[in-house]
Amino acid sequence: MQHQQAVQALSAMAHEGRLALFRYLVQSMTEMSAGDLATALAMPSSTLSFHLKALTQAGLVQARHEGRFMYYSPHRSALNELLVYLTENCCGGSGCPTTELGAGECSSAG
Questions:
Q1: How does pLDDT run across 23-34, given as a tens digit for each residue?
Q2: Domain limits for position 22
Q3: pTM above 0.85?
């Protein structure tokens, strides 16, 4: 992942509504229609559309058109690329002992 792509992804998630939407999609086991997302998140359709557009443009969400409906799912590989980008120099570039700690936890003491 390039620096600018990471900035765009992080910027897209730097809003309470978009972060909640993205987290909801990540937790979902299936793609979801815009209507189902609006209902689940108690979010007006116009607001939801705005947030989905930002997340899609950042490459974090993918959309699939079927008939009159749009279905959304997280772009999991993009999320993984972002996590790798953010942690690639963790612990001085020597890597984190993630097998001993929980995923995403770094040990500064080694």
A1: 999 999 889 999
A2: 3-93
A3: no
